[in-house]
Amino acid sequence: MKKPLTKTSPIGIFDSGIGGLTVAKAVMDALPNEDIIYFGDSARVPYGIKSQETVRNYSNQIARFLIQKGVKMIIIACNTASAAANDSVQHAAGKVPVLNMIDAGTYGAIRSGKKAIGVIGTLATIGSGAYEKSLKQADSSLIVKSKACPLLVPLAEEGWIDNEVALKTLDIYLNTFKSNGVEALILGCTHYPLFKTVIQDYFNGKKLDIIDSAEAVAASAKSKLELKQLLNNSDQPGVLNCYVSDRPQRFYELAERFLGRKPENVFVESLKD
Amino acid sequence: MKKPLTKTSPIGIFDSGIGGLTVAKAVMDALPNEDIIYFGDSARVPYGIKSQETVRNYSNQIARFLIQKGVKMIIIACNTASAAANDSVQHAAGKVPVLNMIDAGTYGAIRSGKKAIGVIGTLATIGSGAYEKSLKQADSSLIVKSKACPLLVPLAEEGWIDNEVALKTLDIYLNTFKSNGVEALILGCTHYPLFKTVIQDYFNGKKLDIIDSAEAVAASAKSKLELKQLLNNSDQPGVLNCYVSDRPQRFYELAERFLGRKPENVFVESLKD
Q: pTM for this one?
């Protein structure tokens, strides 16, 4: 049974694993009074190597779970699921608005006013061409240059953000953007906000806007809730409840790095295939 | 219907993905006339983050598939599945002998005659304590020192084996073994043979035996087939047939790096959950 949408309903956010917590953090920063339900599909991560049909199937299961929890909005905080499952999640969500990373990154790039846009992401995201398609659809005159950076996710999970290995890896991946005319760079993976400061430092001296999809989707969420008159007006800080499909221990260990603080409430919830 | 085991029956090898191809290569080097059926569960990789029950379930499905293909031996070329599923795979395999990476690495360490053994592997393998348990069971006087090296798998898949990033990463993970008294080091992950030469160079000047689990399991396979009088006496080179559960393209791209040559025959075979 669907619960009525109210101002005090929580916002639902999901990802294939832990990366989407950077989105949860950006939403909490932008909307500190909103309650959040986060679902990390840690038993079935990563989505990037799975077929579109499987990703849609998993995403729909999670959407139904979040709807049952009474969320007033769903944020697909996973680039692979954003590309594969936005329409089917919107169908599952009914009248509950659905936001996704690729639209948010695209809006952020358009708002920057730049004409040459770089995109970095996982092999799956870059290989899918989803950002390029979305950017060109928004403005066919844009020049888009993409680069897969597969080592950044494991580096972030190892906590190697600014050591010698991380800096050299970033140099190998990013040096092309120092000379290829790109004026704005989309961080097209939910793990990448951890490297935001390091990437800004790397491009120091060059005019390059960094577009953080997590911040962009948080801004979209705020606008959308305002428009629908569903912003929580409470003066109490919001509560974050996390659900994972397997192994909460690893989630606890990593969550602080992505969230900026320890998650208080972590529950295990197995979804049926 | 089970096929009778004959000398010309193939050897079955499986892994959660691509890493087990280093084992296939070692088996082909040791037994060049044997036919091999390789199964890489690319749709469900990685196993390390999944529950033991799930890993057993997946491994049993693959074992039944290999038995239907008429294999005369199954090699579990995946450390996680070796730790979680050896007994259940042996049960599914009936009279067909089953070898696994952890037993093979343990035998290799015992044969080295060294008393202080280092083990490197993924977070899941090292966290499980499977090598330590197996080594202590074989010889309780052994001293075992383990170190998880989570970045080596993504480095191997990126093809960064001996660049600056790889060398610095290996130094961070391995420098402890330069001074902690370890005399032999088990490469406890099927991806790690790609780094064997670089690791040998790193320890140049220090007496440290490198125990390559892939070579160790190939040696065990040869002994076992000799014992059972099932060695293929043909003078024809063996044929390798590969089955993957998803996305053969990525398998093609990576396989050469692990196998030393392109795989000729790659088929998609979906197994039911």
A: 0.92
